[in-house]
Specification:
Layout (H helix, E strand, L loop, with lengths): L1 E5 L5 H14 L16 H6 L2 E8 L2 E10 L9 E9 L8 H15 L4 E6 L4 H9 L3 E2 L11 E6 L2
Parallel strand pairs: 4-5
Antiparallel strand pairs: 1-2, 2-3, 3-4, 5-7, 6-7
């Protein structure tokens, strides 16, 4: 049975195994004390200033997405960032990425964000295609992610 769940701390070990599998499959390697430190404490990284969802099949995580508030407190715009959108390779092509992205967009709209930003890599062709399909457009770099090759935003109004 397929179920979309909001992350809870009991899922932490499963999340770490999920990302290790995804990132190893992509050939990127998993570095939980460095580049991927946010994954080692999802509660702090995402749940305190946003939300993370896990798409599960029979309680096994097959996909994730997160939204994080990156607005400066006194900023005129409320800005969210799309993070950690992944679907296991064997589950891709079934509409699960679309479901995760729609969940993130809906959450961002419901929480009054003005725009949703993301950074990604060009090799993630299906994800980049999906982002374009939903209206994301290219923008200049907004962060210091040395691994990102493409920066995008979706206006939410």
């Amino acid at each position: 049975m397929l179920e979309l769940k909001i992350f809870n701390p009991n899922m932490q070990q499963d999340i770490e195994r999920f990302y290790e599998k995804c990132l190893t499959h992509l050939g990127w390697g998993y570095d939980p004390t460095g580049r991927h430190i946010d994954i080692s404490n999802v509660q702090k990284a995402y749940m305190e200033h946003g939300c993370m969802w896990c798409l599960c099949e029979d309680n096994f995580i097959i996909g994730t997405v997160a939204v994080k508030n990156i607005s400066i407190d006194d900023a005129k715009e409320k800005i969210a960032e799309l993070k950690r959108m992944f679907v296991l390779a064997e589950y891709q092509g079934k509409g699960y990425g679309r479901l995760l992205l729609e969940t993130a967009i809906h959450y961002s709209c419901e929480n009054g964000f003005d725009k949703l930003l993301l950074d990604t890599r060009l090799e993630l062709h299906a994800a980049v295609h999906l982002y374009h399909k939903y209206g994301f457009v290219g923008i200049p770099s907004y962060n210091d992610n040395a691994k990102a090759e493409l920066y995008m935003e979706l206006p939410l109004h």
